[in-house]
Amino acid sequence: MEFIGEFNVLPQLPKPIIRLNDLANNFYFAWHKDAQDAFREIDPDLWRDCNHNPVKFLRSVSQKRLEEVGKDTDYLQKLDDVLYGFDKYMTTESTWFNVKYPEYKNKLVAYFSAEYGFHESLPIYSGGLGILAGDHCKSASDLGLPMVGIGLAYHQAYFTQRIDATGKQTAEYPVYNFHELPVTLEKDKNSKTMIITIELAGKEVSAQIWRAQIGRIPVFLLDTNISRNDADSRQLTARLYGGDQEMRISQEILLGIGGVRALRALGYKPDAWHMNEGHSVFLGLRRIREYVENEGLNFYDALEAVTANNIFTTHTPVPAGNDAFPLTLKEKYFRDYWESVKIKRHEFMELGTEVQPAGYQIFSLTILAFNTARFSNGVSRLHQKISRKLWESVWPDVPENELPIDYVTNGIHAFSWIGREMGELFRKYLGKEWVRKLWDPEFWDKLDEVPAEALWETKIALKKKMIQHLHRRMKEQYERNGMGVLQTRKIGNILDPNALIIGFARRFATYKRATLLFRDRERLIKLLNNPDRPVQIIFAGKAHPKDEPGQNLIRQIWELSQEEPFKGKIFIVDGYDINMARHLIAGTDVWLNTPRRPHEASGTSGQKVPMNGGINLSVLDGWWVEGYNGKNGWAFGDGEVHDNHELHDTLDSIELYELLENEIIPAFFNKNDKGISDEWIQIMLESMKSNIPVFTTSRMVKDYIEKLYIPAINNNEKVTADNFQVAKELSKWKQKIERAWSAVSLTLEDQKVENGSDLLKYGEKFEVSLMANLGDLKPEDVLVEIYLSRPFMKESDDILTTIPMKVTEDLGGGKYQYKGFIEPKDSGLFKFTARVIPSHPKLTHKHETKMIKWVE
């Protein structure tokens, strides 16, 4: 018998539960467990099989079952409670932002990111950058920040990872039907699909717009996989970080330029623009063109207007991680652009040109971002220092500590990453208000009142849930690889909730040193095979499909896990995604992080662990430099950067073994008569109390609001007011400075103790006299200042001081005498020099012109 066709019957929601559609099309469900339960209770197995995708779930569930729950009074009461909370959340006006900043509630921030990790049901993320962007949006919604997001709708996503029976990683690219995902297609006023277009090297490319609603925040995703495009253009939104450089630059033009066009088509007029990494940097070029075409500004006036409220966050601490292109490729895609805004090729290229050590030039998107944004930041305190060092060439001769790169340390969206059982523990012992007290350190001291037995039992419950999830994943993996019935049956007994379970889950890049723990095989065997102190290690994570060294690390771990001394002790699980991450982060006792400092800009996986009673064991890199206090986990390494990687890795591994053998394992297994380790509980509590209120995206987004968003909004109003008067004034002034700067010089005339003695005593002043040759400039165009340093002091605010100098005489011919006085606040050795910097009262920061001359 042969079937002659097929059809699919979509279920219809009965009227009493019709509003399940509202919950399904808002990622509010991703961090509200009662909303998830509204779907899970209908059919738990189908909910899991649909990967917790509520839209697909509602398209697949049995009509009979829907009719049953539509008549179930208990279910309907629970659903009413969920909908009440949802409606209250979506409609309240008394959000943190509106209460704190009522004068800004009608302003708007636009947030651009190449990837977003909202939930496992929308896989348009590859790793930490996307997860952070998703958590950023969720906390922006929680706080009531008026924000809109822009991204791309990848219909093949990043890739689905498989590890075969030999340990080889393979990449699968399933095609996702966006009509079955929790997103909706944007329509115009005539109910037709909204389309925007961009130009790519003379070819017109169209994109439709999907809306992902993240609580109160809409995120719009551009999709070129539509019939009006040719085959190549349809592939633009196929894969995240796929293809060659032409594909990469085309995707970034779509994100940046297409993103601005999409916001305009949708009627949005943002007051601040945030570029999450350099992928979206072309949004600045599009905005400049708008000002040139619509407001009649010249390019440099428009540049001032655009940079005034552009914000750039850099996430990458190594040069290779920053996108850059050959100048020929830039010319191919942007010749029409620089002609349209009436500038020359060299003027355009100067916005992003970077000279390589070999002498040739490339076009750096990171440099372009710094040059088109007045506000920039790294993602941890250490990363600020690394970024300043990495990009010091953008501000030649400016001291590293003064470079205008701020920092906002990353965080995590607590409600998305806390295990259900831990949330219930908080509710029981801390009260319902814990969700509103996330950033209150004093509140979290109440954790000391939680009974040790309750905390220990909750952690065991989270471990059991993780183990159940991993057993299911590993069973699928073993069956897929044909590893035999006996091997597959053993899976149900291989993870022990009473063992010390160490987790390592992240991208498999070589600098993350996933195999650091394997450098001394015999020592590791001994550590893992003590029957009285069982220790198990779980690995998960992907290597980029083109990263052979990273894939080799996965193969090494797999092969080791199959050897007899390590079988049942070391595991590597494939298919790493948000769902698996959520279980691992909640269930593991110790979270291992081994990057080669300073390559971890921030790292957020470890920030999710304390929320679930886990403890970090990490190199002092990224966020852990700020998070570690000596009592809330363990740190190893000397905190320095090493050129000899082999020696460095050996020393770090030795310290890692010693910590495990002498501190961590004994602390976990030194249990009292109730089977609980009092020492471990104290470290758990310290980990929770010190980290939970600090490393959340609630705190992070508040920092962005106060340090970057509001200043950018204010700056925009200042620069664009009165027909862009300040923008035009600054543009004209900077051009004058640029023409005259080569003639400017500074010469030391005299230095002496004010009272004329040979020795400077504490409480006395030291006088410095300079002659400044300003050429065509005037004293009001510059700032002349003494630069004071204390070379032997430890890092503090007193190491460097600048002291303004005053004009004491006009010497004629553009020359002026300046004097300044140093009055040391302490005794000891001081060093000083002097400099002249262009200065204007309406600059955003003092080194905005990137020009500086030091005394000769």
Quick recap:
The chain is of the alpha/beta class. The chain is built from 29 helices and 29 strands.
**CATH architectural category of the largest domain:** 3-Layer(aba) Sandwich
- % residues in beta strands: 15-25%
Q: Unreliable segments (pLDDT under 50, ≥5 consecutive)?
A: none
The coarse silhouette is globular
Query: Count the strands?
Result: 29
Query: How would you name the CATH homologous superfamily of the largest domain?
Result: Glycogen Phosphorylase B
The name of the CATH topology of the largest domain is: Rossmann fold
Structural class: alpha/beta
Number of domains: 4
Supply Rg.
29 Å
Report on the biggest sheet: 10 strands, mixed
| Helix fraction bin | 25-40%
CATH class of the largest domain: Alpha Beta
Overall pLDDT, averaged?
94
What is the CA-CA span between the terminal residues? 94 Å
- The number of distinct helices, counting runs of at least 4 residues, comes to 29
Structural features:
856 residues, alpha/beta, Rossmann fold, 4 domains, ten-stranded mixed sheet, six-stranded parallel sheet, 29 strands
Write the layout of secondary structure elements.
Layout: H1 20-24, H2 33-40, H3 44-49, H4 54-60, H5 63-69, H6 73-91, H7 96-100, E1 109-113, H8 128-143, E2 147-152, E3 160-163, E4 169-172, E5 184-185, E6 195-200, E7 203-214, E8 217-223, H9 231-234, H10 245-266, E9 272-276, H11 282-295, H12 299-307, E10 310-313, E11 324-326, H13 327-340, H14 345-349, E12 353-355, E13 361-364, H15 365-371, E14 375-378, H16 381-390, E15 406-407, H17 414-417, H18 420-430, H19 441-444, H20 452-480, H21 485-490, E16 500-505, H22 521-528, E17 535-540, H23 548-561, E18 570-573, H24 578-587, E19 590-593, H25 605-608, E20 615-619, H26 624-627, E21 633-636, H27 645-669, H28 678-691, H29 697-740, E22 745-753, E23 766-773, E24 782-789, E25 800-804, E26 806-812, E27 815-822, E28 831-838, E29 853-854
Parallel strand pairs: 1-2, 1-9, 2-8, 9-10, 10-14, 14-15, 16-17, 16-19, 17-18, 19-20, 20-21
Antiparallel strand pairs: 3-4, 5-7, 6-7, 7-8, 11-13, 12-13, 22-23, 23-27, 24-25, 24-28, 26-27, 28-29
Helix pairs in contact: 8-29, 10-11, 11-12, 12-29, 18-20, 20-24
